[in-house]
Design brief:
The structure is a single chain. This protein has about 250 residues and is an all-alpha fold. It folds into two domains: about 55 residues, no CATH class; about 180 residues, Orthogonal Bundle (Hypothetical protein af1432). Helix content is about 50%, strand content about 0%. The chain is globular, with a radius of gyration of 21 Å. The mean pLDDT is about 90. The structure holds fe (ii) ion (FE2) (2 copies). The site of one fe (ii) ion has 5 residues, from α8.
């Protein structure tokens, strides 16, 4: 075996190892992740991290992303399996004859749940998308969160049975949800946010397989994909996409 061959075998082996694990690299978990796991301490002293090699940048445990990632790359390489919920909601919106803009709103309505944060997901999702979609889409995504808790018989939307099971029969929404519902109720785009709720599919059809590629054309027409790649751009939400791309980066 030549030296060069030996080196390239070594490089392959190293790459394989890094894909399997991070070697000795330390990961500093974000405080929000610790809090979400119920970890909190009232200790008054803290220690700076030791001088150990630390993960900074790309995370080789996750699928590699292209240099200039698109929304579809994020969908395929970072979003959780529950993205099928988004795909099926968008497919239903399409079947119900909603305009393309609303199909995109349904396709992205829970983007925060499947990629970033669950709490306040409508608000986070709207912020992630604002620079890249029509204002009506991000407004509707922000407001669907509040509207989900309130019935509208005029369009056959009932309080979700699942919510009674998950949160208890006597669950009451937080005051800000009540406030935002009232604001949305009188807004010119009320029906757009409401349509997200109507097409928000909780019963998944395991026989229906919808792929993101089914919506490639709609995304192309209604999502302003930055040329330099989602996250590499300088929009007010670019950092959120970068964080999803490199979720364990030290800083
Ligand atoms: Fe939602
Ligand atoms: Fe949903």
């Amino acid at each position: 075996m030549s030296n060069v061959q030996g080196l390239s075998d070594k490089a392959d082996a190293l790459e394989y190892k890094q894909m399997q694990e991070l070697g000795d690299l330390v990961i500093h978990r974000s405080p929000i992740n610790k809090l979400a796991d119920g970890e909190w301490s009232d200790a008054t002293e803290f220690k700076m991290a030791g001088p150990k090699p630390t993960l900074m940048g790309e995370d080789h445990r996750l699928p590699a992303m292209p240099e200039k990632p698109t929304l579809i790359d994020f969908f395929n390489l970072r979003f959780a399996p529950s993205k099928q919920h988004l795909l099926q909601s968008a497919a239903l919106a399409q079947k119900n004859g909603l305009p393309e803009k609303m199909v995109l709103a349904c396709l992205l309505h829970d983007v925060s749940v499947i990629a970033l944060f669950r709490p306040d997901h409508g608000y986070w999702g709207a912020q992630m998308l604002e620079p890249y979609v029509d204002e009506e889409i991000s407004w509707a995504i922000r407001m669907h969160q509040a509207l989900r808790f309130f019935a509208d018989e005029s369009v056959g939307y009932e309080y979700p049975v699942a919510y009674s099971k998950w949160f208890g029969e006597d669950y009451k929404v937080e005051p800000y949800v009540q406030r935002d519902y009232e604001e949305a109720r009188n807004h010119k785009w009320y029906m757009s946010a409401r349509m997200i709720c109507v097409n928000d599919l909780y019963a998944f059809d395991s026989d229906t397989v919808v792929t993101i590629e089914d919506f490639e054309d709609i995304i192309g027409r209604h999502f302003k994909q930055p040329e330099e790649g989602l996250g590499n751009d300088n929009s007010p939400a670019a950092h959120m996409w970068r964080t999803i791309r490199r979720p364990a980066s030290a800083l």
